[in-house]
Amino acid sequence: MLEDTLEIGGKRIACRLFVGTGKYSSHAVMREVLLAAGADVVTVALRRVDGSVKTENILDYVPQSCTVMINTSGARNAEEAIRIARLARAAGAGNWIKVEVIADSRYLLPDNMETLKATEILVREGFVVFPYMSPDLSMARRMADCGASAVMPLGSPIGTNRGLRTEELVDIMIREISVPIVVDAGLGKPSDACRCMEMGCAAVMVNTAIAVSRNPVEFARAFSMAVKAGRLAWRSGLPEIAGGARASSPLTGFLRDTE
Amino acid sequence: MRVRINGREEALPDSVTTLQELVRDRGLVPEHIVIEVNLQVIFRDDWPKVSLRDEDRIEIVSFVGGG
Predict the structure, then answer these.
(1) What parts of the sequence cross the membrane (chain A) (predicted)?
(2) Angle at which helices A27-37 and A216-236 pack, to 10 degrees?
């Protein structure tokens, strides 16, 4: 098959597993995970420095070949998300932004309206914007119309490992939305990621499941293989699902007398 | 001089009058941080030129792991 890269914001992305950098036991383990996954896109957050002197910069542990996407986590409205994006760009972290606006602290579900507002403004300011959203066709359409480079519907609430609970809605988005669909949040195991890719998602994003597994490096490798398998399956064309049985072996030449 | 740093009010020593001096005073690694003064991002090259004033609101942030 021909080369199968995802082109976004002028970059060619070979690895369709985006990996988050949170919750690892050390920066060194995180780096091993990114290498094992072969990650091309990784997310990083921005926070106030605490009083202690920092001697390590997490970005030094991200392989050079990766594109860093800053998330706006912690933002409760569009204004705060925009502020974080501008700070990140000023820090030299590039212009890829995952807009994450969350006003709900129990389920961490995104505020689609504020996300749309931030997306619109950040696109105008030259950012490559990936809005994290609750799967909703109209909202995704508006986000794509105002220049989002992709949309990131959630599979289930952040960090739950519950898998793709929003399948029907994501499936509709894949069929109807012109920009790439990247399922983010809640994917708990490689088969969840594989399912997303078989459906035709452009990529998936995983953090918690990998970071909290007993062997994050090997689990990252498993996720990466699952994403590749799902993608290849989708490109090959999934067969239709039949109601009744259809024999795989010939229905002639049986070892019995004809009646 | 009294300023607000990362949401907390603090008194700065007399030796600290610019952003550059604040960074040095705190022992922060310039390459690892980004600073905003009164909601305006200040680029590293401009830190020596930015004089701090009473009641300035300063945000000092850095990158951390996240999904």
Answers:
(1) none
(2) 20
Q: Are B61 and A46 in contact (CB under 8 A)?
A: yes
Model confidence over A171-216: pLDDT tens digits?
A: 999 999 999 999 999 999 999 999 999 999 999 999 999 999 999 9
Please state the domain extents for chain A. 6-48+56-236
B60–A49 C-beta distance less than 8 A: yes
Q: Which fold has domain A6-48+56-236?
A: TIM Barrel (3.20.20)
Residue B64 token pair: 């951390």
From the CB of residue A248, how many other CB atoms can be counted at a distance below 10 Å? 5
A48 touches chain B (CB under 8 A): yes
Look up the pTM and report it.
0.90
Report the run of H or E that residue A119 belongs to, with start and end: helix A112-124
Distance from C-alpha of B15 to C-alpha of A148, rounded to nearest angstrom: 47
Q: How many CB atoms lie within 10 A of CB A172?
A: 14
A36 to chain B, any CB pair closer than 8 A? The answer is no
Q: Which of residues 194-223 of A touch B (CB under 8 A)?
A: 205, 207-208
